[in-house]
Amino acid sequence: MPVAANFSKAFYDKLGHGVVDELVGWLNSVDATYRADLRELNELNFARFDAKLEQRMAELRAEFEMRFTALDAKLDQRIAELRAEFQAGRAELRGEFRSTLATELGRLRADLIKWSFVFFATTALAVIGLR
C-alpha cells in the first residue's frame, strides 16, 4: 500500500515535480520490497515456530503416554494386591464364622438336650403321679 509523501514546497521547487514523484515512487517500491521481505521472513519464522511446537507437542504426548502406561501398570498391580488381601480376609472371616457357628450350634444342642430332659422328666413325674 503506497503512501503519498507530502514534501515541502521548497523541496518541489528545488528538485521539480518529476524528480520528486520519481523519488516517491522509488521510496514506495523500496517500502513494498521491504514489506514483502518482512512478510516472507515472518512466514518462515512462523513455520519454524510451528514445527518446533509440533515436535514439542509430540514429545509431550509421548511422555504422557509413557506415564499413563506406568500408572496403569501400578494401578493394576495395586488392584491385584487388594484383591489378594480381600480374598485372604474373606477366607479368615469364613474360618472364624464357621468355628463360631460350630461352637454356638454345639452349645445350643446341649441346651436343647438339657431342656428336653427337664421337660421329659417333669412329664414323666406328672404321669407317674397321676396313676
Written description of the protein model:
This protein is mainly alpha-helical and 131 residues long. The protein has 2 helices and no strands. It has helices at residues 9-15, 17-130. The model has no long low-confidence stretch (mean pLDDT 89).
Number of structurally distinct domains: 1
Helicity range = over 70%
Strand percentage: under 5%
Order of helices and strands: HH
- Number of E-type strands: 0
Taking the sheet with the most strands, its summary is: none
Any idea what the radius of gyration is?
51 Å
Helix count, DSSP H or I runs of 4 or more residues: 2
The unreliable regions are: none
What shape does the CA trace take?
rod-shaped
Assembly context of the chains: single chain
Structural class: mainly alpha
Amino-to-carboxy terminus distance: 138 Å
Mean pLDDT: 89
In short:
The protein has about 130 residues and is mostly helical. The protein has helices at about 10-15, 15-130.
Break the fold down into its secondary structure elements and pairings:
Blueprint lengths: L8 H7 L1 H114 L1
What brief labels describe this structure?
131 residues; rod-shaped; mainly alpha
